[in-house]
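queue> pop job 88
queue> type: inverse folding (structure -> sequence)
queue> payload:
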């Protein structure tokens, strides 16, 4: 796993444990969606089912990544490298991303909440059994634990989308928030946005309109 210069893990706590907490939190939000609300507004063009489907891809992509051939060497040093590389690829067709969310939502079937929770359980079992090999992602080869940090990011960010769409109040687990906040801050610095972020967080200036550390639409899927 990637470490900072002080020797601490880049993601803070054990990524598998943080992933477990984040996925359990999102599963709880999904459990809180009334049966009559799945066709209601989710995010952008997505209804709630499609938004949850898109969020489920944070877990599905773990399976897809492990199914790829095992690379020999690491190309991406950390989760920040992953997001920077994905934004450089510029291959995400917004329409295709939207449709993948719709398809993923449909794949959750008649019991989407139950399907999401089962997917989370299956994914966590695989993650805990996998260790930290080098894996091939759409952005390049990286350590598996660093890739898991990107999945935690997706779960927490889209979990907040689900929370907003359903007007729930549940807070993300502390370890998940720390992991995502740290990754977001490091990514901001890597993009040259560190000063703007620091000024905003200390009450000295507002964030620039439309700012995103992802370098693209914040709704864009990160495979």
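queue> result:
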């Amino acid at each position: 796993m990637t470490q900072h210069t002080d020797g601490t893990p880049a993601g803070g706590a054990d990524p598998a444990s943080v992933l477990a907490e984040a996925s359990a939190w999102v599963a709880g939000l999904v459990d809180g969606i009334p049966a009559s609300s799945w066709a209601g507004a989710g995010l952008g063009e997505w209804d709630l089912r499609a938004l949850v489907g898109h969020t489920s891809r944070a877990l599905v992509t773990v399976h897809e990544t492990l199914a790829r051939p095992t690379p020999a060497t690491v190309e991406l040093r950390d989760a920040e490298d992953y997001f920077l590389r994905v934004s450089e690829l510029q291959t995400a067709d917004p329409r295709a991303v939207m449709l993948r969310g719709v398809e993923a939502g449909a794949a959750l079937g008649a019991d989407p909440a139950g399907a999401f929770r089962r997917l989370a359980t299956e994914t966590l079992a695989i993650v805990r059994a996998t260790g930290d090999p080098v894996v091939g992602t759409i952005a390049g080869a990286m350590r598996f634990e660093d890739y898991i940090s990107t999945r935690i990011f997706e779960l927490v960010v889209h979990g907040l989308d689900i929370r907003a769409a359903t007007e729930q109040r549940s807070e993300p687990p502390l370890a998940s928030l720390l992991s995502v906040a740290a990754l977001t801050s490091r990514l901001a610095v890597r993009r040259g946005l560190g000063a703007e972020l620091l000024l905003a967080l200390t009450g000295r200036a507002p964030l620039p309109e439309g700012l995103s550390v992802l370098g693209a639409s914040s709704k864009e899927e990160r495979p």
